[in-house]
Amino acid sequence: MKRSLFLLLQIFVVVAAFAGWAFAKPSSSVPVNDLRQLSALADEFISAEERMLVVTIRGVGERKAVLGLVGAHPEHGGASCGEIGGKCVFVLRHSSFGAGALSETEAWMGRAASVMEEYMLSGTWNINVQGWLQDGKLADSVWEVVESAARAAETESYEDAATRSLSYSSPLFQSSIISGEEQINLQVAAHRVTDSDRWRVTLGTPAILIEY
C-alpha cells in the first residue's frame, strides 16, 4: 500500500508539472457537495452498479504530524517525507465501487477529515468517477450533457483516435486549479477500449488523476 501510494505521489507531481497545474490552497473543509454534484452528473451516462469513485487528498505538513497521521491510521494512505525544512508530503486515497460507492465515499471523507484535523493538517482534494457508458448512449452525447447539466464552459481539449478529454469551468464545483492560463474545476474524458469496443467515461473535479 505505501509503495503504491508513493508511486501515486510521484505520478501526481509529474503529471501536475507536465500539465502546468497550479493547485488551490489546501483546505480543511470536506467537499461533499463537489462529490454529490459529480456523482449526479455521472448518473446521466454511467450506471451506479458499474462505477468507481476515487478520492485523493494531498497535503504537506510537519514530519511529526504527517508520520503520526499515517502511522496511527495506516488505512488512510501513505507519506513521502523529504529533508527540506522537516516537511513531509502525504497522500490519502480511497476507492469504492458499485451502487453504494457514494455513501461509502462520503463516510470515508468525513473520517479522513477528522484524522487530518486531529493532526492539524489540511490538503487539496480531488474526486474522480469512472465507469462504462450506458448501453444505448453515444459517446458524443456525453459532452452535450455535461455542458448543459453542469453549465460548463470548455477551456481545454485533447483528442486522438480512441480518446477525447475536455476541461471545463463550471459554477457547480468549488475546488479548482490553474491549467496553463485557464482556471478549471471539471474534466471529462471518454476512451474507447479496443478489446470490448466499449467507452469508458471518467469525470474529475478539479481534474482527472486516474488512468482514463
> Strand tally, please?
11
Largest sheet features: 8 strands, antiparallel
What is the 3D shape? globular
Assembly type: single chain
Structural class: alpha+beta
The N- and C-terminal alpha carbons lie at a distance of 21 Å
Q: What is the averaged pLDDT score?
A: 83
Low-confidence stretches: 1-21
**Could you estimate the helical fraction of the residues in percent?**
25-40%
Strand content: 35-45%
Provide the gyration radius in Å. 17 Å
Give the helices and strands as they follow along the chain.
Answer: HEHEHEEHEHEEEEEE
Strand order of the largest sheet: 3-4-2-5-11-10-7-6
Total DSSP helices: 5
Task: List key phrases describing it.
globular, 212 residues, alpha+beta, 5 helices, three-stranded antiparallel β-sheet, eight-stranded antiparallel β-sheet
Question: Can you describe this structure?
Answer:
- This protein has helices at residues 2-19, 32-42, 63-72, 101-118, 139-149; strands at 21-23, 52-62, 77-81, 87-97, 124-132, 153-159, 163-169, 177-179, 182-184, 186-193, 198-205.
- The protein is α+β, with helices and mostly antiparallel strands and 212 residues long.
- The protein has a domain at 2-23 and 57-126.
- The strands form 2 sheets. Strands 3-4-2-5-11-10-7-6 form an 8-stranded antiparallel sheet, sandwiched between helices. Strands 1-8-9 form a 3-stranded antiparallel sheet.
- A hairpin with a 2-residue loop joins strand 8 (177-179) and strand 9 (182-184).
- The longest helix has 18 residues, at 2-19.
- The two termini are 21 Å apart.
